[in-house]
Design brief:
Elements (H helix, E strand, L loop, with lengths): L2 E2 H8 L2 E3 L5 E2 L1 E2 L9 E4 L16 E5 L11 E5 L2 H16 L4 E2 L4 E2 L4 E2 L4 E2 L4 E2 L4 E2 L4 E2 L4 E2 L4 E2 L4 E2 L4 E2 L4 E2 L4 E2 L4 E4 L4 E3 L5 E3 L5 E4 L4 E2 L4 E3 L5 E4 L4 E2 L4 E2 L4 E2 L4 E2 L4 E2 L4 E2 L4 E2 L4 E2 L4 E2 L4 E2 L4 E2 L8 E3 L4 E2 H12 L1 H19 L1
Parallel strand pairs: 4-5, 5-6, 6-7, 8-11, 9-12, 10-13, 11-14, 12-15, 14-17, 15-18, 16-19, 17-20, 18-21, 19-24, 20-25, 21-26, 24-27, 25-28, 26-29, 27-30, 28-31, 29-32, 30-33, 31-34, 32-35, 33-36, 34-37, 35-38, 37-39
Antiparallel strand pairs: 1-3, 2-7, 22-23, 39-40
């Protein structure tokens, strides 16, 4: 796809300084820009690169005034970072405008779908599936029976959505993700083995949920595993059965959430966090990477460590922890001095 500076300025409501007809066909970092690429300058520490970049077009803030000659055409906007993000979103929408049904695919006769459907080769849609408008199902994706999709849902290659799952509007399931697999439910028996407990519930993803590559969301034992509106999950996350995650919470890679835990709204959870089951985490909670959470958490807490405790207290204590050998030596010396004085 090729865009001119004037076309991009029109999308971003910006002003062109330079050649309005110069064209770009790819994106680049400002320090790696080359002819035919588009970049942006938002962080002042990258300003020197604008005088050396070979990018054809650079998006900058309106208050930017060069003090050297520039080889790049400028597009001036109110907020360069926000505008570049908007352009990335627009580019992604254009890139994902595929429609039509490739061959071979399987789509059950009882399935229904709205206009703008795309099904890639070797994808599968089961019985009684209901899909809204502009649904995109990429090659080798699997959609089981009785699944419901809203509008503008994207299921990338190799993802799997199991039966009874309900997915709202504007959701994205990345490659290799599994939504609606059986929860980890087993009961111990008298002879020391484990008997499987049927997982009869489902998964509900509300609008604007993103699920990263390789992430697994288990169906509920009974009822629903629920991700509320705007939840964002990174890659390789485990969400267990009957978990509920509040609106606009974000979770980084390799985190695991055990069964029946409730996580509040607008939480930020770092990578490799472990959260036990059957606890409640409040709203606006921040959990640092590699923490272990084994208790209920109140609103607005910031936690670090295993078990997780107050972030400020953790950092103060860690200063002493690093000096622990020195402190022990000092105590030993004091004990020796006291013994010597007493003798």
């Amino acid at each position: 796809m090729v865009f001119t500076a004037s076309q991009i300025a029109g999308i971003l409501e910006g002003e062109v300084e330079g050649n309005p007809e110069i064209a770009v066909h790819k994106l680049a970092k400002i320090e790696e820009g080359e002819k035919g690429s588009l970049t942006f300058l938002a962080n002042p520490k990258y300003t020197p690169y604008i005088y050396t970049t070979k990018a054809s077009i650079t998006i900058v803030n309106k208050d930017f005034t060069p003090d050297q000659n520039l080889a790049t055409t400028l597009i001036k906007v109110e907020d360069a970072y926000e505008s570049f993000s908007k352009l990335l979103e627009y580019y992604d929408q254009v890139k994902n405008t595929k429609t039509g049904i490739e061959n071979p695919v399987h789509i059950a006769e009882s399935a229904s779908y709205g206009e703008g459907l795309y099904m890639g080769a070797f994808s599968y849609v089961g019985e009684n599936v209901k899909m809204g408008k502009n649904v995109k199902i990429y090659p080798n994706a699997y959609v089981d029976d009785n699944v419901t999709f809203g509008d503008n849902v994207i299921i990338f290659a190799g993802a799997k959505v199991y039966s009874e799952t309900i997915i709202g509007n504007n959701c994205v399931i990345q490659s290799g993700a599994i939504v609606g697999s059986d929860g980890f439910g087993f009961a111990p028996t008298k002879n020391g083995t484990f008997s499987k407990i049927p997982q009869t519930g489902n998964v509900i993803l509300e609008d604007d949920v993103d699920v990263g590559a390789g992430t697994t969301i288990d169906r509920a034992t009974m009822g629903s595993t629920i991700l509320r509106k705007g939840v964002k999950l990174d890659n390789q996350i485990q969400i267990a059965h009957n978990v509920e995650i509040g609106e606009h919470t974000v979770i980084a890679a390799q985190t695991g959430v055990a069964g029946s835990t409730k996580i509040g709204k607008r939480c930020m959870i770092g990578g490799q966090v472990g959260i036990v089951g059957h606890i409640t985490i409040g709203d606006n909670v921040r959990i640092q990477a590699q923490s272990g959470i084994s208790r209920n958490v109140k609103d607005n807490e910031i936690l670090q460590g295993t078990p997780g405790w107050n972030y400020g207290d953790f950092n103060k204590s860690y200063v002493h922890f690093k000096n622990l050998p020195k402190i022990v030596n000092q105590i030993n010396e004091l004990e020796k001095k006291i013994d010597s004085d007493n003798n």
